[in-house]
Amino acid sequence: MNNDTIISVEGLTKRFGDFTAVDSISFQVGKGEIFGFLGANGAGKTTAMRMLCGLSMPTSGKASVAGFDIYKQTEEIKRNIGYMSQKFSLYEDLTVRENIRFYAGIYGKTNSFIKEKTAFVLKQLHLEKDADKLVRSLPLGWKQKLAFSVAIFHEPQIVFLDEPTGGVDPVTRREFWNMIYKAAEDGITVFVTTHYMDEAEYCDRVSIMVDGRIDALDTPSGLKSNLKASSMDEVFLMLARKAKRTGD
Amino acid sequence: MRTLRFLLQKEFRQIFRDPAILRIIFVMPIIQLLILPWAADYEVKHVNLSVADHDHSSYSRLLISKVTSSGYFNLISYNNSFHAALEEVEQNKADVVLEIPAKFEQTIVKENEGTLFIAVNAINGVKANLGGAYLRSIIQDYNREVRLKWIQFPRFSPETSIEVHSSNWYNPLQNYKYFMVPGILVILVTMVGSFLAAMNIVKEKEIGTIEQINVTPVKKHYFILGKLIPFWVLGLFILTMGLLVTWLAYGIVPVGSFITIYIYAAIYLLAILGLGLLVSTMAGTQQQAMLISFFMMMVFILLSGLYTSIESMPVWAQWITKFNPVTYFIEVMRMVILKGSGLADISRQIIIIIGFAIVLNTWAAISYKKRV
């Protein structure tokens, strides 16, 4: 493990009764990397991610996130990560500004920091005019972009994104990925799950989960040349077809 | 501490933006307090009476007019046969049948005694019981009147007469509203304190925001406090609204001090909020929370002594009432509002409710997990 490793996972396993959702996975993510975490529905991506975020207790295995142990130091981990779940998780009955202020506040950010950065984020999202509108009234794509901005508002070391672009139109997806690149440039490590293979091409490295195990892990071009595939789509289909589990 | 301020700010904003909650807070207490006490009336009136008069004498007419003028009975039919009268009962038109036998007047005058027959429809137990009892006491009264008419010189009265004088303490006019209104107020405070709080937390589970909170460094106890404090304030607010309505609509002003009521309510709400929190940890969806709440509310209302006296319940049911926090608050409210009891008089109830608060909140805090 070198100094630039920010997430390190070894033999991480999660069982629910007889069912092994995550089956002894191991990988490392480097600082500032955009790490794509792919897999079919039900492959165990979300469960693995939830363990890394301290939301779910692993059955066995070792892992550290931002240098903290996922068994004992979950509170420290939480201070250093951002998380955006599959479900939209801003408060629809609060305004854009109130949502930002609330999440920044509970991360312990100072008022002056919140004020300054809120103005910056609103400008970046072109939401200055809608800052005092309820989040409920925004279109989905905007909500997702806002949710991402809120997830990295407190300037975490790592941000976990669980299918952030589900149900979003291609233009907005493109804009969303520009935001991800921007975050990575600012030194935030991005750990992202997705179903879109074009998005997988944008990642620095990609892991593909099949039936709870990681079957492949490499750069997108490395994966393609190894499997003699022309696109990530093909790579994914070759690997995912072996799956015995049915999706959820 | 600063975290808590952010949490509270968010909660209050959301509460005051939700029209459904506002309706519950402002409209429900007023409507319920204005309507329920009138419906929850213990007095039985409008008992439907069917008379089978075989005598048709001046005595029987006197009796019937005495019964109908009492105000408790509606004479719905006047028949010549018992069968015809009983048919009214079968058709659910009459509740009570009074049968006056043939030669009723004659036997009274000649033999100095008479027989009457009462048949009661006992499907509605309370109505039957009280209706029958009213009828009996009216007949007794009638009996005394008839005798008084005959006895010219009361000092030779052959009847021993013991007259009973009674005085009703704390509620001299036996106004049942004095009894019901404080109890209904308790139920209102309980519903807000426990179930609105539970629904609120479960709602966050359902929409997924709770998971977002769980990946933040917010401490578990801050999150819980952030949820409980707003509903604690709302509970006391509803109590205030309720006491206001009680005064304006029924002229009930507590004999005891408001401070006593508020001190008790403040502790009581802690216990009941703990219960709400517990419900929220048990339920995954708002529907589940709703169902649990319904079930608990039934037990709370029926086994709290709100409508029926606890002393007349079977012993096992009396034991259940002891595990019902609502019981104690209803007791306290009635004691303070009607009797003017002070803190010293309700010390037993205070200690018990503190116990409830500790047990329920500890249980809930243990069940609430940030990590599964």
Number of domains of chain A: 1
Overall CATH architecture of chain A: 3-Layer(aba) Sandwich
State the end-to-end CA separation of chain A. 35 Å
- Give me the Rg of chain B, rounded: 28 Å
Structural class of chain B: alpha/beta
Secondary-structure-derived class of chain A: alpha/beta
Strand content of chain B: 5-15%
Share of helical residues of chain A: 25-40%
Largest beta sheet of chain A: what is the strand line-up?
A: 6-7-8-3-9-10
Shape of chain B: elongated
Describe the strand arrangement of the main beta sheet of chain B, using strand numbers: 2-1-3-4
Succession of helices and strands of chain B: HHEHEHEHEHHHHHHHHH
Uncertain regions of chain B: pLDDT < 50 for 5+ in a row? none
CATH T-level topology of chain A: Rossmann fold
The CATH class of chain A turns out to be Alpha Beta
**Distance separating the two termini of chain B:** 26 Å
Task: Count up the domains of chain B.
Answer: 2
Rounded mean pLDDT score of chain B = 87
Q: Roughly how many Å is the radius of gyration of chain A?
A: 18 Å
Number of helices of chain B: 14
Q: Which regions of chain A have little confidence, pLDDT < 50, spanning 5+ residues?
A: none
Membrane topology (chain B): Multi-pass membrane protein
Domain ABC transmembrane type-2 (chain B): 136-371
Organism (chain B): Paraflavisolibacter caeni
Protein name (chain B): Transport permease protein
Describe the overall structure.
The complex is a heterodimer of chains A (248) and B (372). Chain A is built from nine helices and ten strands. In chain A, a hairpin with a 2-residue loop joins β4 and β5 (68-69). The mean pLDDT of chain A is 90. Helix content of chain A is 36%, strand content 26%. Chain A has helices at residues 45-52, 74-80, 96-106, 111-124, 140-151, 170-185, 197-202, 220-226, 232-240, and strands at 5-16, 19-30, 34-39, 60-65, 68-69, 81-84, 158-162, 189-194, 205-210, 213-218. With 248 residues, chain A is α/β, with parallel strands linked by helices. In chain A, α3 packs across α4 and α5 (140-151) packs parallel to α6. Chain A has a single domain, classed as 3-Layer(aba) Sandwich (Rossmann fold), CATH 3.40.50. The longest helix of chain A is centred in the C-terminal third of the chain and has 16 residues, at 170-185. Chain A is globular and about 50 Å long. A four-stranded mixed β-sheet of chain B has the order 2-1-3-4, with helices on both faces. Chain B is built from 14 helices and four strands. With 372 residues, chain B is of the alpha/beta class. Chain B has helices spanning 2-17, 19-39, 58-68, 82-90, 104-111, 125-150, 176-207, 209-214, 220-250, 258-282, 286-302, 315-322, 325-339, 347-367, and strands spanning 47-53, 73-79, 96-100, 117-120. Chain B has two domains: 2-40 and 172-367, no CATH class; 47-156, abc type-2 transporter like domain (abc type-2 transporter like fold, 3-Layer(aba) Sandwich), CATH 3.40.1710. The mean pLDDT of chain B is 87. In chain B, 66% of the residues lie in helices and 6% in strands. The interface between A and B is medium-sized, with 29 and 25 residues. Chain A: Residues 7-236 form the ABC transporter domain. Chain A: Pfam families: ABC_tran. Chain A: This is ABC transporter ATP-binding protein.
